[in-house]
């Protein structure tokens, strides 16, 4: 089994190193992995003149699974698109046609006190945001900045979905709901946008194939409210690229920290890209402060969805539970009386707990 590791920028390399540690701990008495590393993001631009170097894309096509850290910095976000670190990631997702991005939002009982929200609201939260990842305003054309006749600059992006793109992610949503609590909530803006009216129509059509799944619809503005007010009512949420990006960062706070949210980006085949939901966090990069659990939990999703190692995936997840129960906390989830640790020490604790789990 071959894993391509793409550390990227900022805290990307710091958290990814801990996920690699966890995978090595799994491999110590189990499945063997071949791990290779390649450059992406600002690191790709510096090393090879491109945020998605050709060699990286080729290696990604050959790998069984890809573990990604974070790409981009505030500086490169200001460069032309082809030089922005984050665009390397967008191109990778598109090139591999990884249209279904699963972002599980699980409130660990051990972390209820770490959230800014009240215990009775978040206790028992267990939902998945399924974000469409290769369409929408992220990729629609026309796009760009141009000048009109008077010389004024005009910025354009286009929200666009084909019914085929909506249908395949809707099927993925219904299938995911079937493996969980049989509830799918589709989030759109069908009252204003034609694209989103089509979204609702197609999701409803697909729903006829899944009579055992309860389908509901929400507008994205109301959804953002309900998500914070009554998060336990949600099972699977399926939504477009931009709404999913925004809703999942908000949903992260139900778990206590954006540093707790893993994700899997999947296509039609078995190959997947596994990435924490957070970014490169320039404000804490290089300080051994980043929470590596989102990256480690992404590695667990990789074991499950691309490498066929369900038992190992569970061992990694149980190890995370164990270190949280033992009181290990990075600063973002720190609570009074807990054991304050850095990125490395958290990674070491999880790796050791995996050894105990697998014994
Ligand atoms: P961010 O997710 O990097 O950071 C937001 C806040 O959350 C910061 O205060 C940060 O310190 C904190 N945070 C994030 N991850 C954390 C972790 N693991 N542990 C503890 N705290 C954590 O978002 P941003 O500040 O909007 O973006 C920073 C850069 O990252 C930008 O250049 C952006 O384009 C890029 N970005 C990349 C990705 C990605 O590669 N998937 C995702 C989002 C943003
Ligand atoms: C994410 C990020 C990316 C996105 C950026 C870095 C391009 O915010 O993975 O959530 O918007 O998809
Ligand atoms: Mn995002």
UniProtKB/TrEMBL annotation:
SUPFAM superfamilies: Isocitrate/Isopropylmalate dehydrogenase-like (SSF53659). Residues 2-350 form the Isopropylmalate dehydrogenase-like domain. InterPro entries: IsoCit/isopropylmalate_DH_CS, IsoPropMal-DH-like_dom, Isopropylmalate_DH. Its EC number is 1.1.1.85. It comes from the Bacteria. It holds the Pfam family Iso_dh. The keyword Amino-acid biosynthesis applies. Mg(2+) binds at residues 221, 245, 249. Pathway: Amino-acid biosynthesis; L-leucine biosynthesis; L-leucine from 3-methyl-2-oxobutanoate: step 3/4. The record marks 138, 189 as: Important for catalysis. Substrate binds at residues 93, 103, 131, 221. It catalyses: (2R,3S)-3-isopropylmalate + NAD(+) = 4-methyl-2-oxopentanoate + CO2 + NADH. Binds 1 Mg(2+) or Mn(2+) ion per subunit. PROSITE patterns: IDH_IMDH (PS00470). Its main location: cytoplasm. NAD(+) binds at residues 279-291. Keywords: Amino-acid biosynthesis, Branched-chain amino acid biosynthesis, Cytoplasm, Leucine biosynthesis, Magnesium, Manganese, Metal-binding, NAD, Oxidoreductase. Its cofactor is Mn(2+); Mg(2+). It is found in: Cytoplasm. One of its GO terms (molecular function) is 3-isopropylmalate dehydrogenase activity. The keyword GTP-binding does not apply. Homodimer. Catalyzes the oxidation of 3-carboxy-2-hydroxy-4-methylpentanoate (3-isopropylmalate) to 3-carboxy-4-methyl-2-oxopentanoate. The product decarboxylates to 4-methyl-2 oxopentanoate. PANTHER family: 3-ISOPROPYLMALATE DEHYDROGENASE (PTHR42979). Belongs to the isocitrate and isopropylmalate dehydrogenases family. LeuB type 1 subfamily. This is 3-isopropylmalate dehydrogenase.
């Amino acid at each position: 089994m071959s894993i391509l590791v793409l550390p990227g920028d900022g805290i990307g390399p710091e958290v990814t190193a801990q996920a690699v540690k966890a995978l090595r701990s799994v491999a110590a008495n189990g499945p063997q992995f071949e791990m290779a590393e390649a450059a992406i993001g600002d690191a790709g631009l510096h090393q090879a003149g491109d945020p998605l170097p050709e060699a990286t894309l080729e290696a990604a096509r050959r790998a069984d699974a890809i573990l990604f850290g974070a790409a981009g910095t505030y500086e490169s976000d200001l460069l032309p698109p082809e030089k922005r670190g984050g665009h390397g990631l967008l191109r990778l997702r598109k090139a591999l046609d990884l249209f279904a991005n699963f972002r599980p939002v699980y409130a660990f009982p051990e972390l209820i006190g770490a959230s800014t929200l009240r215990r009775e609201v978040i206790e028992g939260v267990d939902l998945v945001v399924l974000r469409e990842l290769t369409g929408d305003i992220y990729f629609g054309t026309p796009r760009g900045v141009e000048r009109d006749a008077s010389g004024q600059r005009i910025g354009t992006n286009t929200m666009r979905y084909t019914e085929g793109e909506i249908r395949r992610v809707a099927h993925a949503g219904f299938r995911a709901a079937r493996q969980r609590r049989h509830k799918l909530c589709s989030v759109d803006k069908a009252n204003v946008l034609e694209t989103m009216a089509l979204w609702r129509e197609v999701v409803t059509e697909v729903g006829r194939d899944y009579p055992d799944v309860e389908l509901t619809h929400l507008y994205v503005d109301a959804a953002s409210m309900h998500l914070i007010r009554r998060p336990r009512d949600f099972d699977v949420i399926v939504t477009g690229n931009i709404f999913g990006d925004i809703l999942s960062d908000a949903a992260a706070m139900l778990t206590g920290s954006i540093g707790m949210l893993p994700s899997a980006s999947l296509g039609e085949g078995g190959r997947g890209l596994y990435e924490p939901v957070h970014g490169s966090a320039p404000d804490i990069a290089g300080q051994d402060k980043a929470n590596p659990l989102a990256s480690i939990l992404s590695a667990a999703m990789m074991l499950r969805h691309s490498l066929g190692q369900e038992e190992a995936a569970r061992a990694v997840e149980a190890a995370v539970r164990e270190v949280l129960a033992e009181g290990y906390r990075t600063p973002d989830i720190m609570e009074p009386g807990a054991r304050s640790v850095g990125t490395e020490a958290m990674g070491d604790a999880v790796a050791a707990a995996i050894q105990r789990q697998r014994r």
